[in-house]
Amino acid sequence: MAEVTEMETTPVENNNELALVTSEAQPEALPEMQPEALPETQPKRRKKKSMVWEYFTIENVSPGCRRACCKRCKQSFAYSTGSKVAGTSHLKRHIAKGTCPAILREQDNNHSSPYTPRVGGSEPRKRRYRSPSSPFIPFDQDRCRHEIARMIIMHEYPLHMVEHPGFIAFVQNLQPRFDKVSFNTVQGDCVATYLREKQSVMKFIEGIPGRVCLTLDMWNSKQTLGYVFITGHFIDFEWKLQRRVLNVIMEPYPDSDSALSHAVAACLSDWSLEGKLFSLTFNHPTSEAGLENLRPLLCTKNPLILNGQLLLGNCIARTLSSMAKDVLGAGQEIIKKIRDSVKYMKTSESHDEKFVQVKNQLQVPSEKSLILDDQTQWNTTYQMLAASTELKEVFNCLDTSDPDYKLAPSMEDWKLAETVCTFLKPLFDAASILTTPNNPTAITFFHEAWKIHADLGRSITNEDPFISSLAKSMQEQIDKYWRDCSLILAIAVVMDPRFKMKLVEFSFTKIYGEDAPSYIKVVDDGIHELFLEYVALPLPLTPTYADEGNAGNGKADESHQGNLLSDQGLSDFDVYIMETSGQQMKSELDQYLEESLLPRVQEFDVLGWWKLNKMKYPTLSKMARDILSIPVSAAAPDSVFDNTIKQLDEYRSSLRPETVEALICAKDWLHYGSEVSSNALVKMEF
């Protein structure tokens, strides 16, 4: 009777892919037989499911005799003679019991075994085969390296983790075919990922219709090196506010007058932003000499938008933190007393239970819970004080149930703590807006800044010397911010159809009193001057119709567009229209300002409104796009309440500056994923 053939699965390596190919064992030569002598039915062919076949192949030694050959050490073992099959137990012992010399050498190198036999009554591991329900996924070394680089970037893992024994053992058990990678290899992979993502972001930014605003956030390190984080802010074709970290530039002398100007020049050159920069906001104390170095650099490489008055702006987060620091310094003695009392409660479970028990007995209505502050984050100190002052009755009565508690502040102390909270609350409320994910605009902070300014003006006249002195110190700082940024904030408010010039007039009257008209005129003149500059800009920079049409319709008919919109054909006509229209009708800006205010609704999308009205106000909408992209803060949301300058950790400080930039920027870009391709004018290839 003919020997039954079996289906065998043998792993074959081809171009770094592991594929399961099916081969049929060659049968022995059979004597000629008549067709009727063959059996009527063929037995089912079965696949070999044992794990040992990952390590053995079957070879035909002689007719009727086959042996199993170890792929690692090339030793052969009995498998079948005639119709008798030897089984696989002796093959398992060879690879699992340490008798294969090749596997022993691998264990010495990797401290792991590629095969673990089944123990006890556990279920045997079954090999997965290709089927519609479980598709076969080939192994790809390059793809694995790419994913490791992405993992390290996204989760800020140290690059050296790929050389850690634990990681190597884990990967070898997960996929023995994966080749170990070194620190230098994964560093190169991370930089390659950064460069690929940078090309996509660069195409995205090249296609935006408006200008770009930059924020500068200076970090330091234990080596006294500075790292300037430069982030770009802009509005895309869909009128969505976007932000991207563009550069992280190491400055060896961060306190020098040229540190920021050098970083900005490098960024403008790297991203080809000369002529597209609209404003600059920084989160680092800058000397007058530093500003003098920065302003000429910007003005020589950019159109003189409003004589450069919009190019420099202070970070509101730094101003609020500086004011909060003054408040905490003035109340440091009472703050320490309250902190010690809170610490007494929170570091002992029994003390905390007694505190809650007394609170329930007194039926104190406060829903707040005690927290111990983090002294590097001023918001936590405010929250500790706010909760403690609401629970002061509990502290005052706690000694009746806990005789060991002798830290209760006096009534004068509680009064002082409440005063400190009164000063901190508006700062906390304003700074909290910066932590929201919806990118607060300058419109919001015009309202917040003038409220704080007006409140401090009233507090200065208070009869309490503590209150008046503290208010005077705080007002000096908000005055400086207001002088530097009020024009930017006011122009942004005018671009909101709910407020326009009316809110500026109302607010300035509250702040400046009888002198308000002169300050209001500065804003009115400024916004008209800015509008005229946009009207006079050359068509290639701010095309009125072409960019909007291309954005909505994709590819335009170039020949048709050239006949209608080319500069050579109609540029003189555009000038004629502007000259004659100015004499016969009101400008877009005046028409906009004279229209009625929109009703104030809580969830109003000002960018969405300009998107809907861009055809009605083609030039003014371009100006609004740039103005509403101005960031008021250079601090990241998790750094808004910092009391100290951010510091780069010791590990990253040890890396090359280029690697640090690649890791930080790529993490930011990977966060946005494929969003960059949805808004760009050009088609992106990934």
Automatic annotation (TrEMBL):
Residue ranges, annotated region (Disordered): 24-46, 106-132
Keyword Acetylation: no
Domain named BED-type: residues: 47-107
Localization terms from the record: Nucleus
InterPro entries: hAT-like_transposase_RNase-H (IPR025525), HATC_C_dom (IPR008906), RNaseH-like_sf (IPR012337), Znf_BED (IPR003656), ZnF_BED_domain_contain (IPR052035), Znf_C2H2_sf (IPR036236)
Alphabetical UniProt keywords: DNA-binding, Metal-binding, Nucleus, Transcription, Transcription regulation, Zinc, Zinc-finger
Assembly notes: Homodimer.
Protein name: BED-type domain-containing protein
Source organism (scientific name): Hibiscus sabdariffa (roselle)
